[in-house]
Records
---
Amino acid sequence: MTVSFIVNGQRRTVSATPDTPLLYVLRDDLELNAAKYGCGLGQCGACTVHLDGKAVFSCLTPIGAMQERQVTTLEGLGTQEQPGILQQAFIDEQAAQCGYCIAGMIMRAQSLLDRNPAPSDAEIRRHMQPNLCRCGTHHRIIRAIKRASAVLSSQNGKGDAS
Ligand code: FES
Ligand code: FES
């Protein structure tokens, strides 16, 4: 089948069998390689992207369900030259160690900040639970999310004052 959908703000059209995982289409057809294949079973979160603004496991999401939907990947949050606020916070906190889980971590965290720019520690911990990190970077990841949250709050504060 042919599927036409919006990826990082751009319309993309691909041909694939309907049950092809979105993750494969992103990586193999669209050359968006940030999302990673970890378990392929919805158990690790390495493949997390946003679908219509919500974090989903792209390894479990069939391309056949993507017609006219909006997908955002890590590439959609910023570039190496101009990282997004959360990406910059991960850099500042040195929260990325292996690079394997991090794209998924950032996309999961971004979905929280989009909905709630000032989450509590407990909310962050609960929200991030589906995403696994094997190398023990959890504290830095939480610090990065809080740092991004603080930047967002200060920006909102400036907006209120003007
Ligand atoms: S690869 Fe999708 S959850 Fe592990
Ligand atoms: S930083 Fe990726 S598994 Fe820990």
Note: The helical segments are 22-29, 85-92, 102-115, 121-128, 138-161.
---
Amino acid sequence: MSFYLIYKQLKDVPIETYMQSVSEADVRVVLTKQELNQEDLLALLSPAAERILEEIAEQAHRLTVQHFGKTIQLFNPLYVSDYCVNHCTYCSFSVTNEFERKILTEEEIEVEAQTLRATGIEHVLLLTGESKQHTPVSYLKDCVKILRKYFSSIAIEVNPLDTEEYEELFAAGVDGVTVYQETYNEDIYKQYHVKGPKRNYLYRLDTPERACEAGMRSVNIGALLGLDDWRKEVFLMAMHAQYLQTTYLGTEISVSLPRIRPTIGDFIPTTAVYDRYLVQCMLALRLFLPRSGITLSTRESPELRDHLLPLGVTKMSAGASTEVGGYSQDDKGTNQFEISDERNVNEISEALIRKGYQPIYKDWVHL
Ligand code: SF4
């Protein structure tokens, strides 16, 4: 089975027409339901829902506290390589951008890990550009061997792998996989992914499923908001998450809402995803997937992150660097995108505590 079969049925659903027919009263009916279906999700993403966001936010807050309490898990990315063989039009690491590429040695990874760990962070997300040549599974395993000494949870955001490769990394100590589909729209996917193995839409779409099959504890998916109509993207991403959740009961499925940030190359997003739309996306996801984690990264401003906190967020990065060697090296790499919230781990922790939230540094130990 593959989500692709469901995608093919969903992609021709007249989403716009349906959404235009939704009234505020219809959305209020959705707010009374215990379990939501596909039409309910569309109602929450509709223009009518935009007009009663406050009411939806109350429900989202209630559900978030019910399932997660007032806790926020903190994690941070750690970039070990910016080599990439793909040309994605929206990313600084694209093979077409000329800059001095970096890949960390074992000694450099050790220092980088120590520096990040000293901030208090215990959950780490290991990132590379996508290049099997430069960062093969053997290199990733070497990285994990070092990171295991410092962190209780290690997730990866690297080039999509085969199931057996995920199994190998799981055995080495990786417990989570993050992979973004970027855009679910198969018709335009190749326009953004001009060159490289990432052009294979289906292989990427099936990646979360292969990670689940390999036994990963957590899998995080997302769409890069700004590449296509955000209502459709969030609808399809939520359906994808629901499919994974009901198929792989042993894996925790969470979602992210990354918006396009400035990069080298001056990519202009096709669709403007204003703050109020981002809020609507988060509320719809919280109501449709009440038990799913939702990540809000440092792509967003401190003010917006603080404002969105009670509405559904469960995971945040803090003091993040999107450069290779960004935590410890004087000679850092090029950043993948510009971050917006530059508060360090302590500052984020204090801001959370001031708002009555408990920052969680560790909820998992790999034995
Ligand atoms: S988005 Fe990923 S695959 Fe595409 S250029 Fe950037 S690092 Fe490479």
Note: The mean pLDDT is 94.
